[in-house]
Design goal:
alpha/beta; 282 residues; single chain
């Protein structure tokens, strides 16, 4: 039996996930593998590198830096979240990512991207956080309309959440049959069709299969939630999610709001700590 973590994205809602993961690390709760989507990949990698507090630290420090996330960055570079700053300057110079610990860990780490030419999810096992590994993370978190298409691994890709927002089925298919699923929306959340779809059709008209996936996204997402509920009842997964909508947007320039959502994640994990431990011991 292999144990895993399945991490939904959601941009700065990922502070909730960061809080949960820090508690798991503090409690020495380890799993065999992790799969993250978008922010779930960007922040979840710190679990494998065992860097408690890194996610909340650098987000609070740089949330007002225009190189990190700003409309100025979007106008200047074409990326709302600055590609060079976020995925290279920050982890390689300013708040170092611990590659040595990451690579030494036997834990597997996967991330999900979406191939813009096929509209299908791509599941990438990242053994190294070298330049290419960081580009895969960038691809996983590159939201349409506010990000460049990322070319890595011979593919053109965007945000993994487009095609597989909560990749529990995939993780189960490769042998991870006992999973802690961390959601960044409340349990009663129902996704609706994206209101920006008409704009996406204009900007991404050369990628018809991607657009079809985007059109179906809310349907697939809601079906996945139903599947997760069934698996939870069957005892194959344990779900952590916020009790109510998190008080944060996709972009956040207030450090105290980032910390508040991070603390909600910590509190949620601590409340359910014994249940989590028992789940993995069963």
């Amino acid at each position: 039996m292999k144990t895993g973590l399945v991490l939904e994205g959601g941009a700065m809602r990922g502070m909730f996930t960061a809080g949960v993961l820090d508690v798991l690390m503090e409690q020495n709760i380890e799993v065999d593998g992790v799969i993250g989507v978008s922010a779930g990949a960007t922040f979840g990698c710190n679990y494998k590198s065992k860097q408690i507090g890194r996610t909340i630290r650098y987000n609070m420090k740089y949330c007002n830096d225009p190189r990190y996330c700003s409309f100025r960055s979007l106008l200047k570079t074409g990326d709302l979240y600055g590609a060079e700053f976020c995925y290279h300057t920050l982890p390689e110079q300013l708040d170092l990512f611990d590659n040595e610990t990451y690579e030494a860990s036997p834990m597997e780490f996967y991330m999900v991207t979406t191939d813009v030419n096929t509209g299908e999810p791509v599941y990438y096992k990242c053994d190294k956080f070298d330049h290419e590994g960081l580009e895969w993370v960038r691809a996983s978190a590159s939201m349409p309309l506010v990000s460049h298409i990322v070319e890595v691994g011979g593919r053109q890709m965007l945000d993994g959440g487009i095609s597989d927002s909560i990749p529990l089925r995939f993780f189960q298919s490769i042998g991870y049959n006992k999973n802690l699923v961390i959601l960044t929306q409340p349990r009663d959340y129902v996704k609706k069709e994206n209101k920006l779809l008409p704009l996406m059709k204009l900007k991404l008209k050369q990628y018809p299969k991607l657009l079809e996936t985007m059109k179906q996204r809310h349907i697939n997402y809601n079906a996945t939630l139903e599947y997760i509920r069934t698996e939870e009842q069957n005892g194959t997964c344990f779900v952590l999610s916020p009790k109510e909508k998190l008080p944060i947007g996709r972009i956040e320039h207030h450090p105290e709001r980032l910390k508040a959502v991070y603390d909600i994640g910590r509190e949620t994990a601590l409340v359910h700590l014994d249940e989590i431990k028992n789940f993995f011991l069963q």
